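Methods — Computational structure assignment.
A single polypeptide chain was analysed. Its primary sequence is given first, followed by the predicted tertiary structure written as structure tokens.
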Amino acid sequence: MSVQLQFIQDCSSQDDEQRARIISALEVEIKHFTKAMNAIRNLPSSHDEGMGEAYDAYCRIISAYQEMINVRTGIIERLRTSRI
């Protein structure tokens, strides 16, 4: 989390135009991660607990994508509320 907080502090001093570019880039990443996560969720073996290690790997990948989305969403929210 300290990297996220440092990023937020660095961005807080930037002008609105740069803040908008950063938000836009983060939104693109969120769309990419969401698309990848949904593709994995749509794989039949991602729902089959009988697949053992493959199922566990899919669950971990989905969790990792969700965490990346959550971090970026949090950064966007902080960037939007830190305007002076």
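Note: Residues 53-81 form the longest helix (29 residues).
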